[in-house]
Amino acid sequence: MNEITLTIQHEVGLHARPAALFVKKAMEFQSAITVFCGDRKANAKSILNVLTLGANKGAQITVQADGSDSEAALAALQELVDSNFGGVA
Known about the structure:
Layout: E1 2-7, H1 16-26, E2 32-37, E3 40-43, H2 47-51, E4 60-66, H3 70-82
Antiparallel strand pairs: 1-4, 2-3, 2-4
Helix pairs in contact: 1-3
C-alpha cells in the first residue's frame, strides 16, 4: 500500500466540482483508493463519500492506494491537487 499527504488549496476545498474531478480521476485506476481527512475516511471513487470529508481550503488529506497501479494513481491524484484541480471554479 502506498500513501501520500496533500494540502487542498482550492477556494471551495474538496467540494462540488473539485470533488467530482478527484473521483473521476480515482476511477481511472483499478487500485482501491481511500482518502482520510482528520478522523474521517472515504472511498475516493464515491462522490458522496468524498464530500462527507468536509475538506476545506488548507485541509491536509492523506490518500492511500492499494493495487497494481497504486503508484500511478497517487501520482495522478497528486498532480490534480497540485494543479488546483485545473483551475475549476
